[in-house]
Amino acid sequence: MNEHYHSIHGAVQESAFIYINNGFSFSKADPLNIFEAGFGTGLNALLTAIKSREGTREVNYTSIEKYPLSEEITSQLNHHQFAGNDGKDIFHLIHSSPWNSKVNICNNFNLHKIKGDITAIQLSGMYDLIYFDAFGPDKQPEIWTKEIFAGIAAATRKDGVFVTYSAKGEVKRNLKACGFNVSLLPGPPGKREMIRAVKI
Q: Could you give the number of structural domains in the chain?
């Protein structure tokens, strides 16, 4: 798709700012059920696992990915260097755990990776926090539609939180149409704004 997986201004910095600081730390749900659209390099899962160990609430993390990266690529990533002493082991467990099965990765953090297409499945379960980290609307417009957001809204609890790096007007309008109260927040370095929305 000729698209970067992360901001060229810093992958870890961007993910921590958007998904951890403005999503994980903002949500008060306990236990916390997270759904991620776009597993990608597994960075958001890694940062969430590390953050979850700082507290006591149980975190159940479900992520869907249509195009899983090969071990050849994931083995070259250095994200674990930013994740403390156990970062390397946890990152390895995240990537080596089987798809379509729930696995305990570390204290308080359970991972369920789904190999599939978000446009072709119906989400099961109810979620408190949504990490929407798919490729951008200009690269994958079919993933940013009102229909996709309606499916996510149906699987999001009242007061559930939705965070994404995108701040496009169409994304805001589609979220509002699906029952979210949408706010624009200052974005990470290199990006002026981001979206955080709360299910009404």
A: 1
The model's pTM: 0.91
Residue labelled with tokens 């403005």 = 22
The b-or-e profile of 109-142 (16+ CB within 10 A means b, else e) is bbbbbbeeebeeeebeeebbbbbbbbbbbeebee
Nearest to 190 by CA among 12, 5, 8: 8
pLDDT at 70: 80
Which positions of the chain have pLDDT values less than 50? 1-2, 5
Q: Distance from CA of residue 146 to its chain's centroid? A: 19
Q: Please check whether residue 165 is in contact with residue 131, taking contact to mean a CB–CB distance below 8 angstroms.
A: no
4 within domain boundaries = no
Could you list the residue range(s) of the whole structural domain that residue 178 is in? Answer: 11-199
Please check whether residue 34 is in contact with residue 62, taking contact to mean a CB–CB distance below 8 angstroms.
yes
Residue 6 covered by a domain? no
Give residue 101's region: left, alpha or beta (phi > 0; psi -120 to 50): beta
The residues that bridge with 102 in the sheet, in sequence order, are 112
Does some domain include residue 112? yes
**C-alpha–C-alpha distance, residues 127 and 142, integer Å:** 22
